[in-house]
Amino acid sequence: MSVRKLKPITPGQRFRVVNNFEEITTNKPEKSLTVGISKSGGRNQTGKMTMRYTGGGHKKKYRIIDFKRNKHDVEATVKTVEYDPNRTAFIALLEYADGEKRYIIAPNGIKVDQKVIAGESVEPNIGNAMKLKNIPLGTVISCVEMKPGQGAILARSAGSSAQLTSRDGKYAIIKLPSGEARMILVECYAMIGSVSNSDHQLTVSGKAGRSRWLGRRPRTRPVVMNPVDHPMGGGEGRSSGGHPRSRNGMPAKGYKTRKKNKGSNRYIVSKRK
After folding, report:
1. Domain spans of the chain?
2. Which one of 90, 117, 154, 161 is most buried, counting C-beta atoms within 10 A?
3. Is the CATH number 2.30.30.30 carried by domain 19-42+54-201?
4. What's the pLDDT at 14?
5. Topology, domain 220-273
6. Residue 192 — very low, low, confident or very high, per pLDDT cuts 50/70/90?
7. CA-to-CA distance for 158 and 83, rounded, in angstroms?
8. Contacts 24+ apart (CB under 8 A), 4-8
9. Which Gene Ontology cellular component terms are annotated (predicted)?
10. Is residue 85 classed exposed, middle or buried when 0-12, 13-18 and 19+ CB atoms within 10 A define those classes?
């Protein structure tokens, strides 16, 4: 996993840092596991814009990912490691012993022709999926369920991982990427290893056009808006804009927005940093 800096032969390449994509083995997805995906341009069913700064982007297809890993005790072979335009992590194509094919989030270090399996009594090897009650303490995990059978919810993006620190009765204590320690039922599944493409955060796009390819339109800074458009708008010249807050008046930069009586607060052992 590495990145490389391009020679500054054009203004767009001067600061660009690209991913080497060394782990990628093919550029053609499995056709049976892809579906068309339509774009809304940030507009709802009546045509009204409800999400700003969204629109355009290169045409892409959605890859159907197996987040549940519910094909238990059937060994699968890794056929390819592929790029997915819908997420930051790479994906791996598995072919099971009975011929079925599925995509999973590729863990760091997975190789083609490697064998992976999901089940209760399997080895804690990279790419295998197990229940939290059977994973050795201290293991680095990813793609963690929050409810049994729900499918992976936590630690799914590029380079992220959680750590199983302890178990207490029917709960396992997991340290999440944010630093939060949280209780999760031991019946939930998790994948062994961290998520692939850990150098994703080191890449630099180099030019605004690359954001347009990803479907991001230019964003207007609040301080240059009028008072009718944003709480930080208005003023003569380059005024500071007052206290940083969102368009609907919610304070930003340090203001906690989590509800104090949220039901899942009782599962948090220690808050994030």
Report:
1. 19-42+54-201, 220-273
2. 90
3. yes
4. 95
5. Ribosomal protein L2; domain 3 (4.10.950)
6. very high
7. 12
8. 6/206
9. large ribosomal subunit
10. middle
